[in-house]
Amino acid sequence: MTTLNRRTFAIGAALLPLLAGSGRAQGALPVITVHKDPNCGCCGAWVDYLKQNGFSANVVETSNLDKIRARLGVPAALRSCHTAEIGGYVIEGHVPAGPIKRLLAERPQAIGLAVAGMPDSSPGMDVPGAKDSYDVTLFGKAGQKRYARFQGRREITP
Hints:
4 helices
């Protein structure tokens, strides 16, 4: 009888992730896959920033980012130095962690988020003394709109 109970417990424990859904712990972030040029230092700094904010990252080095961006639907005007994929969304450029987490929680109809260009005060750039403001843009088939506005790492009201 003891063997049956242990076996039942073992089978139940093995099936628990399937019954719970995705197999991830509730609230855990999916892995972000970052496509970056092998020679880009700020891209690595952005990945380090994301890891400090609870993300796990898979980095794919490539010199053909334009082909990846075209396949993923990133508008030319929103392109930056790296492109990432997470939870069915595209993240273009130096997007702060907060809006990415919000995107994953809210799940809007969109392709993804972007910070166009490379603002000096954005995560991963971190130019000392930089105080420029920049937008995080939500983009998709319905167009583009401001999703958040930042000055450095601090979100500000529009």
